[in-house]
């Protein structure tokens, strides 16, 4: 197994490897494979194959600057989709770790880590202290 990894590493020298576009292709291919399990249609199999071929072609390509440009174009094209997704992901992660409380007197939002039991919260805006369960 170690020898295989060594061989693979030597094989990958000077080749492009993974980037965001390839990651996207990988997930797209997996999604198509999954869909294809439920609705068997031949265009899907063609799409699978095309995706896999394109993915491997880009991974093993030696034309690194060209692949880099493709990835940049992909990132530019998907910027409007990726940014809201990233924000949503961030908010979701945060909401699992923190509780947002509103100060009862001034309405200032205060972020408190979850799972600390009852805590006394000091409002940084108006100085009010209030007790909440975190
Ligand atoms: Zn306040």
Automatic annotation (TrEMBL):
Lineage: superkingdom: Bacteria
Presence of the UniProt keyword Transmembrane helix in the record: yes
Membrane-crossing segments per the record: 21-38
Alphabetical keyword list: Membrane, Transmembrane, Transmembrane helix
Gene3D superfamilies membership: RNA polymerase ii, chain L
UniProt-recorded name of the protein: Zn-finger containing protein
Species, as recorded: Enterocloster lavalensis
Phylogenetic placement of the source organism: Bacteria, Bacillati, Bacillota, Clostridia, Lachnospirales
């Amino acid at each position: 197994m170690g020898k295989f990894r060594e061989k693979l590493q030597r094989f990958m020298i000077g080749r492009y490897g993974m980037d965001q576009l390839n990651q996207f292709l990988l997930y797209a291919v997996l999604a198509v494979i999954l869909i294809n399990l439920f609705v068997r249609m031949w265009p899907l199999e063609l799409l699978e194959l095309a995706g896999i071929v394109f993915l491997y072609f880009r991974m093993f390509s030696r034309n690194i600057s060209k692949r880099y440009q493709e990835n940049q174009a992909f990132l530019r094209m998907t910027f409007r989709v990726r940014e809201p997704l990233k924000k949503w992901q961030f908010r979701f992660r945060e909401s699992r770790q923190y509780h947002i409380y509103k100060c009862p007197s001034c309405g200032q939002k205060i972020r408190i880590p979850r799972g600390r039991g009852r805590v006394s919260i000091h409002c940084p805006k108006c100085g009010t202290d209030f007790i909440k369960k975190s």
